[in-house]
Amino acid sequence: MTHPLSGFTVVDLSSGIAGAYCTKILADGGADVVKVEPPEGDPLRKWSASGAAIPPDSDGALFSYLACTKRGVAADPDDAAALEHVHALLAGADAAVWSPESRLAAHPSLRPAEIHRRHPRLTVTAITPFGLEGPWRDRPATEFTLQAWSGGIIGLGRGDPGRAPVHIGGQVGDWLSGAYAAAGTTVSLGTGRLIDVSMLEAHILGLTYYPVTFFELLGRPFRSGRALFVPGVATAKDGLVAIGCATAQQWLDLCAMVGHPEWVDPDKPIAITELATKVAPDLYEWMARHTVAEIRELATAFRIPNAPVGNGSTIPGLEQFTARDSFRPNPRDGFLQPRFPYRMAPGVLREPEPAPRLGEHTGSHRPSRPRESDRTPNGLPLAGVRVLDMTAFWAGPSATHVLAMLGAEVIHLESTGRPDGTRLIAGVPVTEDRWWERSPIFAALNTNKKSVTVNFRTERGSALVRKLVASCDVLVENYTPRVLDQVGLDYQSVRAIRPDVIMVRMPGFGLDGPWRDHAAFAYVIEDASGLTWLTGNPDANPVEPYSLGDPNAGLHALNGLLLALEHRRRTGEGMLVEAPMVEAAINIAAEQVIEHSAYGALLNRAGNRGPVAAPQNLYRTAEPDEYGGTDSWVAIAVATDPQWSALCAVIGRPDWADELAAAEARRAQHDRIDGYLGQWCGQRTGDEVVGLLWPAGVPVAKVMQPHRQAELPQLQARGFFETLGHPVGGRARYSTLPLRFSDLGPPFHRSPAPMLGEHNRGVLAELGLGEREIAALAEEGVIGDRPAWQ
């Protein structure tokens, strides 16, 4: 079997998780990835989040996972011959992936712009905290401070309002950045582009919910305060269980499930958060009297989203993952690691091979010749690709939105009886004119798309959808599996209509297994995969990120789809891509299972501390927040000894520079350091703290309210937000992509999100329908341009 990226060579000049995950995705797709390191090696080789000792002749388990199937070359940047060999590798490659951390990557001849100049046929992908351009391009940052700048720490109002907000554990932004870099590289192979990846912008898209657009269209933030989601994660009789209510109906069902229908007043509108908080003590008392299995069985029967709260010890044994064989032994070291985040039929992904030892292939690996490209380097990468977008809410539309921004023609299929759910969640009063066209979330997720409404549960509607399928290269859907299976639109049926179609299915838990038909919302995916487990304070139950599960699923489905498009471009063959939300999540939470399997270490949440930096925490500042409260914070994360010395000099504690010079000593004295920094920051505004520490080289950030993202000068300089008008909603700024392409200028957003059924006539006429037939379909309610109940 030929792999989608067979014949492409990628030189990996990166260090750390983001670049390693990018090139892992490419290697899984069949690319020949050559990891080039300085003689001391990538620091990830000696990394363990739990602090496990890595013997001198061994590699850390996370490195062994991320470096599967790659080859290893060592090169000393001080050795002219070694540098020449690196450039020979680049001259024979199709792509290079770069990040700035290593001595080798820092060499002037190996900076991204210089690589691009010397090797113009090479696609160069650079992954940096803030991007290659802009006023912050050289500022220090860590995952923790990037979460703060992005607004992702406060996010959707996450965390106990009586305590500091909490960051999302597990270095999730690094994984998201790597997945974006992989997508940008795959779509650009053979074009000679320089791709500039901003990790800050990847954080914004993965950890927040289009807050700028929401604020500018509706004049208010999505949430103006922090609160614990109820019930969320709760303590059952025998462990932790998670239940969530995203709709009024789910809250009604939950009240019935626990025997308290009187909690809902039928004469008053339902405010779920307010009611849930009021009855929380009784609700938690009920849950404490039942086992996890009892609660989940009841909740599943009522179709209330629920999940066990997985961690590194328990996740591989959960019944859905065992049934689907979601974990496998590492081919070299034997610990458990996740399978691919998507599955393809035919099975064209490359099975993992052992990771290379440092410099293992230095003498044996010779430069190759770049693959002759049949791609056009100019223009939007996906121009000419037609996509039927049968998705809704966040996960699916986020994947198809990238396709639309990169030039694909995307037809967003809705029905008047069931419009896309994001049209309905903005809290716009139904008394407003065309209220369903005023949702900022729908507007932000669906620019450049067309809207067609078809009730495919009718005979005529089903025939229309089949005509649409025949006209499209790609079909993407994220219903529960039974929906399309019941109406005869499973993959085999779709393939019978168009043999070369690529069908991307995005179920919550997979197309098979005991959880196949369970309701899947972002927080449930986070609970089951371990993302929730690492988020929160160690003395309390974990806190759901409440955002990450959806956009991460869309991003991985996008990568699977791009590989399928490359396979079809080469072979003419269509494909089924199964991209379960939860399997995308266990891939970016992989470190938990890997650490437990390799070292017997259970990673746990630590509030705002973490394994990378010490000290690392949030500190309250002197100014009130914009709501008149005290929720103003700065994030400080000291990741290196020089940064510690710089911090000590600025805060007036030069004695600590020697006393606590070692990171181990700083971790042992973290409480003492926190006490001093809390007082020091508490006497200053956030801007003052940043203004003192950042120029000195200390990673620091204001904890931004998400809707203030557009105020950041770095995002303004890079044009991350673009202003667009909408015929009903008005003008607002829209986030773009965390990728900048050297040969593609703005705008990413070429047309606003479509109004419901706006393109019915145009698209149906293309299918051969006349005006009378289209009018008859509207009369029968098969198509329409307003919700059926209006």
Automatic annotation (TrEMBL):
Keywords: Transferase. GO terms for molecular function: transferase activity. Residues 347-379 are annotated as: Disordered. It comes from the Bacteria. Gene3D superfamilies: Crotonobetainyl-coa:carnitine coa-transferase, domain 1, formyl-coa transferase, domain 3. Transmembrane segments: none annotated. Pfam families: CoA_transf_3. InterPro entries: CoA-transferase_III_domain (IPR050483), CoA-Trfase_fam_III (IPR003673), CoA-Trfase_III_dom3_sf (IPR044855), CoA-Trfase_III_dom_1_sf (IPR023606). Residues 350-375 have a biased composition (Basic and acidic residues). This is CoA transferase. The lineage of its organism: Bacteria, Bacillati, Actinomycetota, Actinomycetes, Pseudonocardiales.
